[in-house]
Design goal:
alpha/beta; 5 strands; UspA
């Protein structure tokens, strides 16, 4: 059984990647999808945040990520694809690669925002970083 990791953020590109996985795996019994939503940790300045404030931020991020994953999980289950879903807090590209290794995935399928080379030059690209860091096949869906 192939195990695929797919980061999902609810964007149009991640929805297209989800469609690609569903179309590409008509034999749903042969694939397991590890679906993750990665939330960047908040940047905190100063010492004025209490532990309960930090906990509220973390809870809010996880709740938002869970709501996105529920939508995608429902579509995958409807297609008969076995899925595990999880919200991760951390650097997005690093977390995607780390989760793929930790969950023993065979490949990564992810959307790309399609910023083009100029946008990648200025801002960097999560997809580009994942492609360069991963030791497994990465499929980018535009």
């Amino acid at each position: 059984m192939a195990r695929i990791l797919m980061p999902y953020d609810g964007s149009q590109s991640s929805k297209r990647a989800l469609d690609h996985v569903i179309r590409s795996h008509a034999d749903a019994a042969a694939v397991e999808l590890v679906l993750i939503n990665v939330q960047e940790p908040p940047v905190m300045f100063g010492d004025y945040l209490t532990a309960s404030m930090v906990e509220q931020i973390d809870s809010g991020q996880r709740s938002y990520g869970d709501s996105l994953l529920q939508e995608a999980t429902a579509r995958l289950k409807e297609a008969g694809i076995q899925v595990r879903a999880e919200v991760i807090v951390g650097n997005i590209a690093d977390s995607i690669v780390a989760q793929a290794v930790e969950k023993h995935c065979d490949s990564i399928v992810m959307g790309t925002r399609g910023m083009g080379s100029f946008g990648n030059l200025l801002l960097g690209s999560v997809a580009s970083k994942v492609v360069h860091q991963a030791d497994m096949p990465v499929t980018l869906v535009k």
